[in-house]
């Protein structure tokens, strides 16, 4: 079965190569001034100084590939994007010369990275710039649920007066003591770890679930690891999501898993809207099974309180996908993204790339065409890299089989 | 000779079922189980002493109160039999504790119940200023939509990175310390100013101590107040000190409204000299956005004096307050009290009346304590049983009283506690101990 798929890929590569549209892996100089396009933004002022001597930089300000100019689709060699545009397989196929995509930010669930690899496009991200901003905002959301500052400020804005202590207790009703509470972190990556360490300072007992994390990190940070998602949900007073969105965890928080949560638990999401089934959440909020939720990300963005499944849900705190933002983080991410594009343009793909997220898929995809590349385009890209096709093939076969299902 | 109106210090059994009054609340359900076998508990639900029933003013021996009623000297003088006041909470600036001492009333507080609640809320306010969650939630509620990243940057504009920022804590008491340790976890550099704190605490917690308020203000990106309000620090934050703060600094106040001159703050917020302020306490409470000096100020986050509250903290404080009242009723004042805040003033005040008490009411309160005649004004560690304040005409030449004895319903006016007293040298232990 996998063999069949490989052949499919092989055929596709041959087609492409014969047409000379897009060699699978680029190495060596591109067109003297390749086109770099910012897809879903208009401001390139930070990227310009880093790229202007090696590329032409353009912006599309598009919310879908439909809005992207023909010229960019035909000529762009590198694309920069945020989270507000999606690049599915169909979208990617519209680009004729794309070699590298750089996400200005850490999540890349809006790009089909496997399809990109098959089309010979490396996908990169910028994982580090907003780690602390996101962790700080996550803690802020958690504290707003426990201490109710946002809701009380809102009540004061709406004219509530709390004169006596009884009235004060009423307006603050639900504000809870933190020490002794359990915070359950789903996904102990960079942000999850930063949140864990902050939460400990408030007296939270911190537990986490992360099926991908190596054994022992819980010892490094002094946290308790749960073997299953259910274990975590059962033991948490407040659940905070810090995992990326992939094909396995859409609607991770749904009717069924919400019912595994404690009665009256809190939910916080600064990761991806797709992790939470908002209909199920709304129902749980209305019934009080979830005491409050704080969400920076939503199934449909931009979020609006007047639309969608959450529109009548009580006890909500929402922000418009801003947990990553500070001026410094924004600039750092943009500069790092521009530097990654520069590395792609002036170096080798994927070797020169610092944060390529689909490297394995790329290498695998390139196997089947490397032979053709060596044979057909031996003058490109230092063909000596492919002088031992059989050995390479064996190695790649092994890693190919180790890749997750769904690659075709 | 007026019998038993208010002896300066009470020791020994009160009336079998003394009256305990909750002044500015109506709910005594938590206090009842702790007090019902030794006292009658009543509530006044008053916002001033004008609203307190005559009976309570005349008969209450203990008063419980929150922060919503003020007890000035005049207010205190309305009470005829009060011996102890217990603040259900930590701040006691709403009670004139010196006047109370002079009137023979011990004042106590409950300092521990809400320490972490207040620190957690303070951090929440600080984070809301840096990450702007409250304001962005408000913007979404008002219909703002942020579609593109440029719009996201705009709605989040002003959100700042925390690591490397300096948090300046004014007052490193229980709450200040708790805030300092939380803030460190976020990457704040933490500095503090506290003129009352012993040397070395900064070493214990790994913080930097500033020698003056000005030093702290100059070096802080965010200033947070955690000191109590007293006669020396009203309007600590005013036009002059705000100008010592950094351009665009943040201000947080969960301590007392009187520490901040709101007119000056409003002006600084409008001019952007202060980038944002988060206040749980205000000069006039209850706070309203539509009234007062702050009503047109931008970049404000306000909560209605709720930073102390959680159900657990509330119950703990009320139980502890009730237990303190119980200790006062069944034990000795101030010895049996755990958190008496005006002990020194009480002891000093009792100096001057101890002799009259001893001579006149020797049969009250373990009179053996008073075998010693005039001239000896030793004060037992247990405090002096008093009996009958304001005994007329009992000024003795040996006592350096500054004023004549006040009318019968008041104890003799004693000099303020700072004055030298002959008592220090010879403390005597009454034989009933």
From TrEMBL, chain A:
<dbReference type="GO" id="GO:0016616">
    <property type="term" value="F:oxidoreductase activity, acting on the CH-OH group of donors, NAD or NADP as acceptor"/>
</dbReference>
<dbReference type="InterPro" id="IPR029753">
    <property type="entry name" value="D-isomer_DH_CS"/>
</dbReference>
<dbReference type="GO" id="GO:0140297">
    <property type="term" value="F:DNA-binding transcription factor binding"/>
</dbReference>
<feature type="domain" description="D-isomer specific 2-hydroxyacid dehydrogenase NAD-binding">
    <location>
        <begin position="140"/>
        <end position="323"/>
    </location>
</feature>
<dbReference type="GO" id="GO:0006357">
    <property type="term" value="P:regulation of transcription by RNA polymerase II"/>
</dbReference>
<comment type="similarity">
    <text>Belongs to the D-isomer specific 2-hydroxyacid dehydrogenase family.</text>
</comment>
<dbReference type="InterPro" id="IPR051638">
    <property type="entry name" value="CTBP_dehydrogenase"/>
</dbReference>
<dbReference type="InterPro" id="IPR036291">
    <property type="entry name" value="NAD(P)-bd_dom_sf"/>
</dbReference>
<dbReference type="GO" id="GO:0003714">
    <property type="term" value="F:transcription corepressor activity"/>
</dbReference>
<dbReference type="InterPro" id="IPR006139">
    <property type="entry name" value="D-isomer_2_OHA_DH_cat_dom"/>
</dbReference>
<keyword id="KW-0539">Nucleus</keyword>
<dbReference type="GO" id="GO:0005634">
    <property type="term" value="C:nucleus"/>
</dbReference>
<feature type="domain" description="D-isomer specific 2-hydroxyacid dehydrogenase catalytic">
    <location>
        <begin position="44"/>
        <end position="358"/>
    </location>
</feature>
<protein>
    <recommendedName>
        <fullName>C-terminal binding protein 1</fullName>
    </recommendedName>
</protein>
<keyword id="KW-0560">Oxidoreductase</keyword>
<dbReference type="GO" id="GO:0051287">
    <property type="term" value="F:NAD binding"/>
</dbReference>
<dbReference type="GO" id="GO:0003713">
    <property type="term" value="F:transcription coactivator activity"/>
</dbReference>
<dbReference type="Pfam" id="PF02826">
    <property type="entry name" value="2-Hacid_dh_C"/>
</dbReference>
<dbReference type="InterPro" id="IPR043322">
    <property type="entry name" value="CtBP"/>
</dbReference>
<dbReference type="Pfam" id="PF00389">
    <property type="entry name" value="2-Hacid_dh"/>
</dbReference>
<dbReference type="InterPro" id="IPR006140">
    <property type="entry name" value="D-isomer_DH_NAD-bd"/>
</dbReference>
<dbReference type="InterPro" id="IPR029752">
    <property type="entry name" value="D-isomer_DH_CS1"/>
</dbReference>
Automatic annotation (TrEMBL), chain B:
<dbReference type="InterPro" id="IPR006139">
    <property type="entry name" value="D-isomer_2_OHA_DH_cat_dom"/>
</dbReference>
<feature type="domain" description="D-isomer specific 2-hydroxyacid dehydrogenase catalytic">
    <location>
        <begin position="28"/>
        <end position="342"/>
    </location>
</feature>
<protein>
    <recommendedName>
        <fullName>C-terminal binding protein 1</fullName>
    </recommendedName>
</protein>
<dbReference type="GO" id="GO:0140297">
    <property type="term" value="F:DNA-binding transcription factor binding"/>
</dbReference>
<feature type="domain" description="D-isomer specific 2-hydroxyacid dehydrogenase NAD-binding">
    <location>
        <begin position="124"/>
        <end position="307"/>
    </location>
</feature>
<dbReference type="GO" id="GO:0006357">
    <property type="term" value="P:regulation of transcription by RNA polymerase II"/>
</dbReference>
<dbReference type="InterPro" id="IPR036291">
    <property type="entry name" value="NAD(P)-bd_dom_sf"/>
</dbReference>
<dbReference type="InterPro" id="IPR029753">
    <property type="entry name" value="D-isomer_DH_CS"/>
</dbReference>
<dbReference type="InterPro" id="IPR006140">
    <property type="entry name" value="D-isomer_DH_NAD-bd"/>
</dbReference>
<keyword id="KW-0539">Nucleus</keyword>
<dbReference type="GO" id="GO:0003714">
    <property type="term" value="F:transcription corepressor activity"/>
</dbReference>
<comment type="similarity">
    <text>Belongs to the D-isomer specific 2-hydroxyacid dehydrogenase family.</text>
</comment>
<feature type="compositionally biased region" description="Basic and acidic residues">
    <location>
        <begin position="423"/>
        <end position="433"/>
    </location>
</feature>
<dbReference type="GO" id="GO:0005634">
    <property type="term" value="C:nucleus"/>
</dbReference>
<dbReference type="GO" id="GO:0016616">
    <property type="term" value="F:oxidoreductase activity, acting on the CH-OH group of donors, NAD or NADP as acceptor"/>
</dbReference>
<dbReference type="GO" id="GO:0051287">
    <property type="term" value="F:NAD binding"/>
</dbReference>
<feature type="region of interest" description="Disordered">
    <location>
        <begin position="406"/>
        <end position="433"/>
    </location>
</feature>
<dbReference type="InterPro" id="IPR043322">
    <property type="entry name" value="CtBP"/>
</dbReference>
<dbReference type="Pfam" id="PF02826">
    <property type="entry name" value="2-Hacid_dh_C"/>
</dbReference>
<dbReference type="GO" id="GO:0001221">
    <property type="term" value="F:transcription coregulator binding"/>
</dbReference>
<keyword id="KW-0560">Oxidoreductase</keyword>
<dbReference type="InterPro" id="IPR029752">
    <property type="entry name" value="D-isomer_DH_CS1"/>
</dbReference>
């Amino acid at each position: 079965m996998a063999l069949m798929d490989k052949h499919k890929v092989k055929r596709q590569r041959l087609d492409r190569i014969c047409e000379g549209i897009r060699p699978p892996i680029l190495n060596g100089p591109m067109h003297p001034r390749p086109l770099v396009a910012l897809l879903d933004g208009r401001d390139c002022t930070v990227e310009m100084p880093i790229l202007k001597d090696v590329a032409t930089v353009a912006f599309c300000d598009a919310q879908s590939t439909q809005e992207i100019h023909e010229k960019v689709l035909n000529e762009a060699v590198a694309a920069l994007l945020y989270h507000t545009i999606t690049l599915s397989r169909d979208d990617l196929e519209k680009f004729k010369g794309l070699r590298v995509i750089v996400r200005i930010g850490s999540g890349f669930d809006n790009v089909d990275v496997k399809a990109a690899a098959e089309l010979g496009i490396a996908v990169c991200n910028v994982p580090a710039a907003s780690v602390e901003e996101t962790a700080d905002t996550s803690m802020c959301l958690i504290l707003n649920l426990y201490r109710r500052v946002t809701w009380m400020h809102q009540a004061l804005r709406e004219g509530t007066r709390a004169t006596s202590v009884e009235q004060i207790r009423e307006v603050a009703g639900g504000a809870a003591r933190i020490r002794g509470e359990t915070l359950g972190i789903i996904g102990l990556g960079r942000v999850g770890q930063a949140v864990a360490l902050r939460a400990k300072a408030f007296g939270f007992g911190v537990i986490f679930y992360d099926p991908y994390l190596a054994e022992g990190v819980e010892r490094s940070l002094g946290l308790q690891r749960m073997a299953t998602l259910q274990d975590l949900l059962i033991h948490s007073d407040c659940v905070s999501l810090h995992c990326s969105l992939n094909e396995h965890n859409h609607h991770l928080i749904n009717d069924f898993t919400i019912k595994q949560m404690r009665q009256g638990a809190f939910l916080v999401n600064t990761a991806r809207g797709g992790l939470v089934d908002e209909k199920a959440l709304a129902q749980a909020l209305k019934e009080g099974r979830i005491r409050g939720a704080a969400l920076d990300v939503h199934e449909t963005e931009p979020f609006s309180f007047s639309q969608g499944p959450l529109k009548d849900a009580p006890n909500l705190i929402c922000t418009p996908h801003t947990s990553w933002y500070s001026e410094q983080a924004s600039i750092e991410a943009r500069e790092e993204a521009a530097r990654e594009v520069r590395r792609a343009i002036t170096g080798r793909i994927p070797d020169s790339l610092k944060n390529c997220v689909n490297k394995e898929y790329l290498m695998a995809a390139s196997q089947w065409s490397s032979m053709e590349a060596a044979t057909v385009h031996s003058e490109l890209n230092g063909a000596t890299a492919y002088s031992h096709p059989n050995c390479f093939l064996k190695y790649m076969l092994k890693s190919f089989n180790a890749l997750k299902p769904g690659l075709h």
